[in-house]
Amino acid sequence: MLHAGAVSRDDLATELLAALDAGDLALEFQPERRIAGAMGQAGTIWSVEALVRWRHLRRGVVPPDVFLPMAEETGLIERIGSWVLRQAVAQVRTWQASDPAYAGLSVAVNLSPRELARDDLVADVRQVLAEHDMEPGTLTVEITEAALDRDRSVATATLDALRQTGVRIALDDFVGGQDLLSRLHGVPLDALKLDPSLIAGLGSADADDAVRSVLSTARNLGLQTIGEGVETRQQLIALRNQGCDLAQGYFFGKPLGAAGISAVLRAERRPRGHPTSGSR
Ligand code: C2E
Ligand code: MG
Ligand code: MG
User: Fold this and answer.
1) For a substitution probing ligand 1, which of 28, 33, 51 has the most ligand atoms within 8 Å of its CB?
2) Range of the domain at 257
């Protein structure tokens, strides 16, 4: 059993490497939308999160949860991550240039624990920003507490350097809980993404309290807040009432390929002065 498992992991790794070279990896994007805001800003797209997909010849589209753990173990994630970063930045530059309304559109890219530990990560990010003449503040990297726990001092130093470059840092999959403040202490952050498990519980007193506590901590620290995995209007309204800044999830739509997002951006960009301009 063990042997068979190891072989199939190696096979998968070989296939993944070939897929990277053959151009069989692709990105989908999911909008992060403003919840509140003056002058018809509510509902508009503030950013898109890049999510990697493997278009497998026989297996169809393989989701990241299936191949990223193997990529993390084998180190392939470093090459994949570098490719994701380049693709995501190139794509968002196209959208930024497509319409003045989207000149400030942001893109978020996920970094695994192993990617955050790369000693050439900061140089790679700087090079990609320069190659694409990208405003650093329109790039956010998403990390998790697992990446911080791998080696806090290395992680913090890397994040500090990224931030000095002007790149924003978001903490993904945040569930709150005990010792919120001490866990976040000393970590350079710009945004907190509330985990879908918190959003799913909204409406129950416990989950409402947990969300309130995370949002108030974030506000005290001056962090932007994003509710992730928003699937219902009730969840969206609860987040808005609690003052969360942005929302992302199936309620608005599943992640889409670049062409799909281009169509959404075009459709939502109504002419100025139109009665329904920008409102939802
Ligand atoms: P994540 O960064 O937390 O991304 C959000 C995940 O939730 C995505 O899954 C997205 O499709 C899914 N999602 C969005 N809205 C909803 C919703 O309303 N309900 C539910 N149930 N799910 C929703 P996906 O694309 O399968 O990605 C899974 C994870 O894989 C990501 O979680 C991230 O940790 C990792 N990942 C994806 N792309 C990359 C990448 O390019 N690099 C790295 N290092 N990790 C990545
Ligand atoms: Mg993420
Ligand atoms: Mg998440």
Assistant:
1) 51
2) 27-267
